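Deviation from plan, reported transparently: N-(iminomethyl)-L-glutamic acid complex.
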Amino acid sequence: MTASTVITGIGSLVTNDPSLSASGGGTRGPRDPRDLLGLIQDAAVVVEGDRIAWVGESRKAPPTDNRVDAAGRALLPGFVDSHSHLVFAGDRTEEFAARMSGRPYTAGGIRTTVAATRAASDAELSANVARFVAEALRQGTTTLETKSGYGLTTRDEVRALRIAAEHTDEVTYLGAHVVAPEFADADDAAGYVDLVTGEMLDACAPYARWIDVFCEEGAFDGDQARTVLTAGLARGLIPRVHANQLGFGPGVRLAVELGAASADHCAHLTDQDVDALAGARDTVATLLPGAEFSTRAVYPDARRLLDAGATVALSTDCNPGSSFTTSMPFCLAVAVREMGMTPDEAVRAATYGGARALRRTDIGTVTPGARADLLLLDAPSHVHLAYRPGVPLTAAVWRAGKLAYAAPHAA
Ligand code: NIG
Ligand code: FE
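Because the crystal trials were delayed, the predicted structure below was used instead.
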């Protein structure tokens, strides 16, 4: 029989299910932020195997084999980081330093990482991904999507996806990150799109769940992006789009039109774009504050999207060019301070929102039947994630019911 464990004495539990809110859930108006997170005070969670078996007030918890005392600290779902680019070699320290002295960010920097990634061994690339996944875990991330996109040949893109798949189930084919240097130098973007939608797609599709395209000036225009995404759809890959990051453009509307799981970045939105996202059944607006932070760009307006009714996710975009952070708490704090989100909205976006952006119903909540992916904070409330920026607050992380990380100071 599977052993059961109760985590008890949870000062404040984020379930992300308003109907579980101990103080009445639906009796409050929908705008009450306490309902958004389905908070339970003085709570307990029972874990059986890899799943959550029971959630409620501590005093009502059923008997279990084992017991962990949270000692009044906050527990929430592990973060779901639905957008990262971890398969790469080298870094771009100099480019970052130059940017901080005034140079603008452009898509062209991707080439530097492509050269370093192609030159790296499989073992080196895999070790890099493992290091970043472990780094993310220590900060509370229990699910992470990652992309190819620094290979840009059939061989190198397949290699990136194969390596990504060793570390996560959420793998995205991003052959259409920029036009590969060989094709760009020959002024043959069309030839590269043919490759990305032909031989490269055939080779990559078995390793990926998602297909992505960087729809932006300097990368791929709306027509090219549509060609890439529809080819992916025909091979059973689900679209997600790098959209409206550096300027206005067709990316967001294309994402919604094609039923993409997510439109990512959304930093430059017209009213039409916002309406499209608000009316979308299945397309999440994923905001990536690390990118605007590290490129010193204008942050997306999360308030505008939330007020319009869009589903919002927060994610790191971890990559060596525009956002070299694996820290969901950092992104969440910036989103609260700079993007008009309340702490509750940011926590929900970084957990439930990320799960929606990955079309996952088994993660992102602390509810019976969900996978037991849990983050115990060294703090009495999830609000501390934004209130105490830059402070490591992870006490422990469980992934699929197993203790995956315990902070040395928080035994
Ligand atoms: O999401 N925008 C496109 N891709 C990455 C940046 C890649 C790079 O600069 O290496 C992003 O920001
Ligand atoms: Fe990205």
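The chain has two domains: 4-78+365-406, 80-357. We consider this an acceptable substitute for the interim report.
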